[in-house]
Write a structure and sequence with these properties.
The protein contains 5 helices and 7 strands, in the order E-H-E-H-E-H-E-E-E-E-H-H. It is α/β, with parallel strands linked by helices. It has a single domain, classed as Maf protein, CATH 3.90.950.10. The chain has a 7-stranded mixed beta sheet.
Length: about 200
């Protein structure tokens, strides 16, 4: 049984990624929920990919394990791609999801163009620091009022026309098939066995 460690302290991400990777035979997915402590990694990259690689390599070095790291966020067309890589700390370093969402909605107050996309880069790194990254995205738009209690982050405000629902309303099994993270993880799943060898 191969072991792989999820380099995140975000319990929402851990739950989502584990559920998607549980489909892979002979793979045990570990995280901080298994009592493994990891240091804070400073995200100094200017892109999701750079931050994902920084996290994967640092935590692979620290744990000596195969590691998966995700960097993801929401990019809003009318805001020139903001919050982008600052999605998790858009309203400040210790901002809550609610703080970040309030800031986003405030910035979009008199703007008609609500096009947005969720983006994710998943990087897998080996103990000898080889790595490979996988990109996924999903288009949608931002709504003014939160809808639904599922998911985390900007999910209650991220509306998907095809489903007439926000990610906060979508059943998690559907979200785990169509989300930006699911798209990146689907690409990873095609190559993970090779990488773990």
């Amino acid at each position: 049984m191969k072991k792989i460690f999820l380099a995140t302290k975000n319990k929402g991400k851990i739950k989502e990624i584990k559920k998607i990777l549980d489909e892979i035979d002979d793979l045990e997915v570990l995280s901080i929920l298994d009592g493994i402590e990891i240091p804070e990694v400073e995200e100094t990259g200017l892109t999701f990919e750079e931050n994902s690689v920084i996290k994967a390599i640092e935590i692979a070095k620290y744990t000596g394990m195969f590691v998966i790291a995700d960097d993801s966020g929401i990019s809003v067309e009318a805001l020139n791609g903001r919050p982008g890589v600052y999605s998790a700390r858009y309203a400040g370093v210790n901002a809550t999801d609610e703080d970040n969402n309030n800031k986003l909605i405030e910035e979009l107050k008199n703007i008609d163009n609500r096009k947005a996309k969720y983006e994710a880069v998943i990087t897998i790194a080996s103990p000898n620091l080889n790595y490979k990254s996988f990109y996924g995205f999903v288009d949608g738009k931002i709504v003014d009022k939160p809808q639904g209690k599922n998911g985390f982050g900007y999910d209650p405000y991220f509306y998907k026309d095809e489903y007439n629902m926000t990610f906060g309303e979508l059943d998690e099994n559907i979200k785990n098939k169509i989300s930006h993270r699911a798209m990146a993880l689907d690409k990873l799943k095609l190559e993970i066995k090779k990488f773990l060898l």
